[in-house]
Amino acid sequence: xxxxxxxxxxxxxxxxxxxxxxxxxxxxxxxxxxxxxxxxxxxxxxxxxxxxxxxxxxxxxxxxxxxxxxxxxxxxxxxxxxxxxxxxxxxxxxxxxxxxxxxxxxxxxxxxxxxxxxxxxxxxxxxxxxxxxxxxxxxxxxxxxxxxxxxxxxxxxxxx
Length: 160
Prior knowledge:
The structure is a single chain. The protein has helices at 39-62, 94-97, 119-124; strands spanning 77-81, 84-88, 101-108, 111-117, 126-129, 136-144, 148-154. By secondary structure, the chain is an alpha+beta fold. It has a domain at 77-154: Immunoglobulins (Immunoglobulin-like, Sandwich), CATH 2.60.40. The strands form 2 sheets. Strands 4-3-6-7 form a 4-stranded antiparallel sheet. A 3-stranded antiparallel sheet has the order 1-2-5. β1 and β2 form a beta hairpin. The termini are far apart.
């Protein structure tokens, strides 16, 4: 039967703590060489990996689901035509079809106004506006159940 013995370290190798000076006690010749065990860092790294893995599994079960944000565009546009601005939107868009109320906000130069649009007008997909000033902008806000609002703004390009 073979007996396993620890590997002997060459006594001629000096370790940093042995080079500090002669005032340190030297090792007796018949004493076993010191075992330089370097397993501790590996054990520490392994334990850290296990903790991270366990935390990942625990967190996975508790983490809230991400919020799904779905844009509801309805293609609101303002275009100059002769002496009026044509305001259009997509009447087939889900936000328009499900709307319970529509408000058109108009900023015509220094004047501002909020106009309620009927659902019939909203379902048609457009209206004409005759501006007073050159600088005009619009915002169409739709109320969708349950208590959500969706809005898009538009500013017509300069007159053709």
